[in-house]
């Protein structure tokens, strides 16, 4: 019997195909049960996130388990098996266990060090456990994988430094002002990047978040999702006067905030500093803003420098995480080998007892 994993990820498949293969809890459980019933597997867990869909089975016939899993996933996605086969990867035995541990450690993630994967893995395992598709091997294996994720988080700094532009913008604001709890942050724009930025702000303790956008309804929607407050774009200078930090990310082809806007707003601030962070391309903020007293301007190139430096630091921490994976793999390997010895010991005991009698 071997642990087998079959799946796709951001490394092998397009976003369009990953979307088709995304499994909710009910579908994940259905896939697991189908494999238990028809593929000769005795345990199964399906893991599905925005960047991967993988199915882990405990089976005696690796080729049969792989083939059945591909067929099952193709059926769920409504795509031909031939379309799925070129982008699917397979691992068995130690390689499958190592893959699972690296996934739990976020070493196989699109952003190395991201923290969501441990919770997603825990949910996938819990779904399979409650659905009756795990047994003693996978119960031990997945609990061990969750422990690997925990160890990597506590024993390395792999997730300590942000490696996205939106998270770097928030980190920069925190460096300038310290704690963000009592600071007013104005987010200009209501797109995906603005939402990611607001999410990072909330994680850093930001509570006073204002959202403005030329389309007020869009600003209201984003403010509702992030627990902020929508404000009219027409009163932009008034919002600048009230804010401590301005983070702008729109799709405008011209400057959204000019030097003149800021100069008029600064007259009401009584020399209180105002930090501007421009994460738009093309730029939203007039570069001349940086020449105004008490106004501090950072653009996308400043943030990319931070991101690259942080990515380099994460790579160094990833090497430490790989060592943890190897340690845990050795431990799991020894336990699985001990299972192979149990039937032999039981047989010897029966033989000796027979002789004694």
Task: Estimate the helix proportion, in percent.
Answer: 40-55%
Question: Helix count?
Answer: 13
> How many β-strand stretches?
10
Return Rg in Å: 26 Å
Proportion of β residues?
Answer: 5-15%
Distance between the termini: 34 Å
Task: Note the overall shape.
Answer: elongated
Structure overview:
The protein has helices at residues 15-21, 25-38, 62-77, 81-84, 94-104, 116-130, 136-155, 165-177, 192-203, 216-226, 236-242, 259-266, 300-356, and strands at residues 2-9, 41-48, 52-59, 89-92, 184-188, 208-212, 229-230, 245-248, 274-278, 295-298. The chain is an alpha/beta fold and 357 residues long. A six-stranded parallel β-sheet has the order 7-6-5-8-9-10, sandwiched between helices. Helix 6 (116-130) runs antiparallel to helix 7 and helix 8 (165-177) packs across helix 9 (192-203). The longest helix is centred in the last third of the chain and has 57 residues, at 300-356. The protein is elongated and about 100 Å long. The two termini are 34 Å apart.
Keywords for this entry:
four-stranded antiparallel β-sheet, 13 helices, 357 residues, six-stranded parallel β-sheet, alpha/beta, 10 strands
């Amino acid at each position: 019997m071997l642990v087998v994993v079959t799946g796709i990820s951001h490394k092998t498949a397009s976003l369009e195909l990953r979307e088709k293969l995304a499994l909710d809890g009910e579908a994940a459980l259905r896939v697991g049960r189908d494999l238990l019933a028809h593929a000769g597997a005795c345990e199964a867990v399906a893991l599905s996130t925005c960047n991967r869909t993988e199915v882990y089975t405990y089976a005696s016939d690796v080729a049969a388990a792989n083939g059945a899993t591909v067929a099952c996933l193709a059926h769920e996605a409504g795509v031909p098996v031939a379309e799925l086969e070129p982008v699917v990867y397979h691992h068995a035995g130690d390689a499958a266990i190592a893959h699972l541990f690296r996934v739990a450690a976020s070493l196989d993630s699109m952003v190395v060090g991201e923290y969501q994967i441990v919770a997603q893995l825990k949910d996938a395992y819990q779904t399979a456990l409650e659905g009756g598709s795990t047994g003693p091997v996978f119960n031990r294996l997945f609990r061990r994988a969750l422990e690997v994720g925990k160890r990597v988080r506590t024993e390395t700094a792999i997730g300590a430094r942000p490696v996205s532009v939106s998270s770097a913008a928030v980190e920069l604001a925190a460096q300038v002002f310290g704690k963000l709890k009592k600071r007013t942050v104005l987010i200009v724009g209501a797109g995906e990047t603005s939402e990611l930025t607001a999410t990072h702000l909330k994680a850093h303790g930001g509570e006073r978040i204002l959202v403005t956008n030329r389309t007020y309804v869009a600003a209201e929607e984003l403010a509702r999702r992030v627990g902020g407050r929508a404000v009219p774009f027409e009163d932009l200078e008034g919002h600048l006067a009230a804010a401590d930090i301005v983070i702008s990310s729109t799709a405008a082809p011209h400057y959204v905030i000019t030097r003149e806007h800021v100069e008029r707003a600064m007259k009401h601030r009584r020399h209180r500093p105002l930090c501007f962070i421009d994460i738009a391309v093309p730029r939203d903020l007039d570069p001349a803003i940086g020449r105004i007293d008490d106004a501090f301007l950072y653009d996308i190139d400043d943030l990319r420098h931070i991101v690259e430096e942080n990515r380099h630091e994460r790579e160094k921490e990833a090497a430490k995480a790989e060592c943890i994976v190897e340690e845990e793999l050795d431990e799991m390997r020894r336990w699985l080998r001990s299972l192979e010895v149990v039937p032999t010991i039981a047989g010897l005991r029966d033989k000796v007892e027979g002789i004694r009698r």
